[in-house]
Design a protein that fits this description.
- The complex is a heterodimer of chains A (about 325) and B (about 550).
- By secondary structure, chain A is mainly alpha-helical.
- In chain A, the strands form 2 sheets. In chain A, strands 1-2 form a two-stranded antiparallel sheet. In chain A, strands 3-4 form a two-stranded antiparallel ribbon.
- In chain A, a hairpin with a 4-residue loop joins strand 3 and strand 4.
- With about 550 residues, chain B is an alpha/beta fold.
- At the A-B interface, helix 9 and helix 10 of A face helix 2 and helix 3 of B.
Chain lengths: ~325, ~550
């Protein structure tokens, strides 16, 4: 009972912490972008806007008000939504409203919603692959520690870690799609349209991301397991006749779970904010590519929205990781 | 055929020869104690019995036969069949010896299933059975707890349960009670004794504590530098030792039942004056109503509660208690490293706060309390430099201090790792002396040291007290060491002082039940007396 109680309290505290962190992030992001020098209304609206349109933007974003009023107005959009008057009609932007992209004539939230499935598909699929590849390699390396094959394996993972994604991705595309013609050049097909095509087209992006990330996971798994293998309790199980395979697979791997959760949460969280290089390389219309575009044309509301989105996912992933960590290691809750 | 036959065993780790040409036998149901100081190779022998040196790079020579298995030539499979099933091992630190992530019962069940073709459920039932056998209350429920949810004594019981699970012929216990409080130690040793009587297991007990051996084995083998020094029935080895080393070892062992030598007695009168009586020496350090609370709200924990005591000039005040009794917290408040939640600390009658030169601390672990990246000379010079001393005079002063604590002043520029444990503790003492204190507060100053080294450091502290007129506050869990040092004694429990007065009076006729319990739990060096004590404890437990 008390353990369960502890978990609930811990989860609650952790959620509260996440909300506070997110609010702090929103303040910083808002100030950085909207309190910057220059004509915010003109920049937001875009270079081809008429003075009348700029006037309208100023009114819609309350740019004549003091900074904190503007920020609260922005926050209000996030929690309850806004109605933007365009003079003749009213456009409703429901919560969480991140404002309007005047340059693409869309609500930022809708724009993100449209891109999120692409980035989500990429990130989650890659995660499954890198966990399989990385943890598998790490376990193997820990089990065969010190032997020649382990050293080669460790060398390869180090090389994988050191290779940029555009090199691996480009190589994969040239070989698999260009020379061997095993796959067509990737083109995003939504999962809801054709799951099989979705997977085939994402295979190379998944692989290129996973190969690089897997190296990191293999190294973490290996070192965490070796650390556990050096601990006293492993000696106990050896002294009781438990086989090496079981010691590595059950006791040593268990010690690596915590660090793996923490690393994975960070990686997944930041990937959800857009895998800029991978998406650009494979022409995937995800958050990352949209962010690059928005930065290029200085579409302020979109940039702000996406930075907040990244922050949201990183904080969320870390909060989830902390709770999982507490489930994995009950000592966390007690201390 | 003997249960254990070791012939000409040598174990080398690289160029270090840990064990050399050791031979002994252990018959079924008998108990042998391997006794020695750190580095004597006793634990290495214990590991060799189970073939644990295999694949570690250690070079093992000689033959080891355990329960009919030739450990050095056995296949990996045969060896695994031996380990846990016929010969089980209990380790020193019960917390780190269990996997923190799995329930205690599951870990025992896992070991059971390695050796028996049992279902998960049956193995789990066996785990609960053995946990119940070793005296874990409500074993069914507690078997689902993780090791950190157990107390130290319960963890060691759980480990013994794991050892019992497969009904082994031999139990190898490597310092099984060293990490435990003395009352808990007595319980665990009594448990081992009972189990042995019931199951007829043989016992190989590895220990540095001669008293623990005296109580629990039939034969002892004294080891030093990897070799056997003396081997024989426990009564004759401890009663009339033949080897010079054994005699020296026994002489160093502090005795709780022997009054402190007259030569060591403090300058302040102890016997005649009652605890609150007038002292000829003035109080140099005085604590009134000291209280310390850690944490807030529901988690608040009172570590020290309303402690008042005084330390007179040139006397030694012993503070004794088990872990969690608040003795370290009290020491830190006396030195000013920790602010009391309530109460006052007075130096020579003046209320003070913070660390002052006149009250200095000596810490338990001389390894971690010295900066490994600075030479010992620099460390000793710290208090001098803090006082503003500069130039060549500092070096000369440090040389004098090193000499005073029995170190070679030429070792000024050496680093802590180049010294032995006892020497490092001497460095710590020199550093404390550098500040020019009137009081030394020593927190477990010798508990990390071997008995012969312990005796030397205790001797040094006493010498400093006599010659420099220093007052000592000697905090320790070891009642025997404290008796050797103290003029007066404070016994602590749960943050409070339960008994306070002249040391000899308390040791001879303790008035507090807890003090009596503590004293009864200290292992006696005389095997006959030990058996008597054990019978008394059993009686006390049943009534």
């Amino acid at each position: 009972m008390s353990v369960l109680h502890g978990f609930l309290g811990f989860t609650l505290r952790r959620t509260l912490g996440a909300v506070v962190t997110l609010l702090a992030i929103s303040v910083i992001v808002y100030v950085v972008f909207y309190a910057a020098p220059g004509d915010v209304a003109q920049i937001t609206c875009g270079p081809r806007c008429s003075p009348a349109q700029v006037r309208q933007v100023t009114e819609q974003l309350r740019l004549d008000d003091p900074l904190y009023v503007r920020y609260l107005h922005f926050l209000q959009g996030l929690f309850v939504g806004h109605d933007y008057s365009t003079g003749t009609s009213v456009e409703h932007c429901s919560a969480p409203c991140l404002g309007l992209s005047y340059q693409s004539d869309q609500q930022v939230t809708q724009l993100i919603w449209a891109k999120l499935p692409v980035t989500g598909s990429l990130a989650l699929g890659a995660m499954v692959l890198w966990l399989l590849l990385g943890v598998g390699t790490g376990v193997l390396a820990a089990w065969r520690r010190g032997r020649l094959d382990e050293r080669i394996l460790t060398g390869v993972t180090l090389a994988g870690w050191a290779t940029p994604v555009f090199v691996i991705g480009l190589l994969l595309m040239i070989v698999v799609c260009g020379q061997l013609e095993l796959l067509p050049f990737p083109q995003y097909v939504p999962f809801t349209e054709d799951p099989e095509q979705w997977a085939w087209n994402l295979l190379l992006p998944w692989l290129s991301l996973a190969l690089i990330e897997a190296a990191k996971y293999a190294r973490l798994t290996r070192s965490a397991m070796l650390e556990t293998l050096a601990e006293d309790h492993v000696r106990t199980f050896r002294a009781y006749g438990v086989g090496e395979r079981r010691i590595v697979g059950r006791h040593a791997l268990r010690g690596a779970v915590g660090p793996l959760i923490a690393l994975n949460a960070n990686d997944l969280g930041s990937l959800f904010g857009g895998a800029v290089l991978t998406e650009s390389l494979f022409g995937l219309p995800g958050i990352g590519r949209e962010l690059v575009h928005a930065v290029n044309v200085v579409d302020l509301p979109v940039v702000v929205g996406m930075v907040l989105l990244t922050g949201f996912f990183v904080v969320l992933a870390n909060a989830v990781a902390d709770v999982l960590f507490a489930v994995a290691d009950r000592r966390t809750v007690l201390s | 055929m003997s249960l254990v036959e070791v012939t000409g065993l040598s174990v080398a780790f690289g160029s270090v020869r840990a064990v050399e040409d050791l031979s002994f036998r252990l018959e079924k149901g008998a108990a042998l104690g391997l006794v020695g100081e750190s580095g004597s190779g006793k634990s290495t022998v214990a590991s060799a019995l189970l073939g644990l040196h295999r694949d570690t790079g250690a070079v093992v020579d000689g033959t080891v036969r355990v329960a009919g298995v030739d450990v050095s030539s056995a296949s990996e499979r045969e060896l695994r069949g031996l380990r846990g099933a016929r010969a089980a091992m209990v380790f020193q630190d019960p917390l780190s010896s269990l996997d923190p992530y799995y329930a205690v019962g599951d870990q025992i069940a896992e070991v059971y299933r390695v050796h028996h073709p049992a279902s998960r459920r049956a193995a789990r039932a066996r785990a609960v059975e053995v946990l119940d056998r070793v005296g874990i209350p409500d074993a069914g429920r507690r078997s689902r707890a993780r090791p950190h949810e157990f107390s130290g004594g319960m963890r060691q019981r759980a480990l013994i349960a794991m050892a019992l699970a497969c009904g082994p012929d031999l139990l190898v216990a490597d310092e099984p009670t060293t990490a435990l409080d003395v009352t808990v130690q007595a319980q665990i040793l009594d448990l081992l004794h009972t189990l042995r009587e019931e199951t007829g297991m043989g016992l190989l007990l590895v220990t540095h504590d001669v008293g623990v051996a005296a109580e629990n084995v039939d034969e002892v083998l004294v080891m030093r530098h990897g070799r056997a020094v003396e081997h024989g029935p426990v009564g004759s080895v401890l009663g009339s030792p033949a080897a010079a080393y054994t005699r020296a070892l026994l002489k160093s062992v502090p005795r709780v039942d022997v009054p402190r030598p007259a030569a060591l007695a403090g300058t302040a009168p102890s016997g005649s004056a009652g605890p609150a009586g007038p002292a000829s020496g003035a109080a140099v350090l005085e604590a009134t109503g000291l209280r310390r609370v850690f944490g807030r709200g529901a988690k608040a924990f009172t570590a020290v509660d309303d402690v008042s005591l005084e330390v007179r000039r040139g006397e030694a005040l012993g503070v004794v208690g088990e872990s969690g009794s608040g003795k370290t917290t009290l020491g830190r408040m006396l030195v000013g490293l920790l602010e009391p939640t309530a109460g006052l600390v007075r130096h020579e009658g003046v209320a003070v706060s913070g660390v002052r030169p006149d009250v200095q601390m000596i810490f338990q672990d001389p390894v971690s309390s010295l900066n490994p990246r600075r030479s010992v000379g620099e460390s000793v010079a710290d208090p001098l430099r803090a006082r503003g001393e500069r130039g060549p005079a500092v070096r000369a002063r440090v040389a004098g201090l090193l000499e005073r604590v029995g170190l070679d002043p030429a070792h000024h520029d050496r680093y802590p790792h180049e010294f032995s444990g006892g020497q490092r503790q001497r460095v710590g003492i020199a550093r404390a002396l550098a500040a020019g204190p009137r009081v030394l507060v020593c927190d477990e100053p010798v508990s990390a040291l071997d008995v012969t080294t312990q005796a030397q450091v205790v001797e040094l502290l006493d010498e400093l007290r006599r010659e420099l007129g220093l007052a000592l506050v000697f905090i320790a869990h070891d009642l025997a060491v404290v008796r050797r040092v103290s003029d007066r004694l404070a016994v602590m429990r749960h943050g409070r002082v339960v008994e306070y007065g002249p040391a000899d009076e308390i040791y001879e006729s303790p008035s507090d039940p807890y003090t009596r319990q503590l004293l009864a739990a200290v292992p006696a060096l005389d095997p006959d007396l030990a058996a008597l004590r054990r019978a008394e404890r059993r009686e006390a437990a049943t009534t």
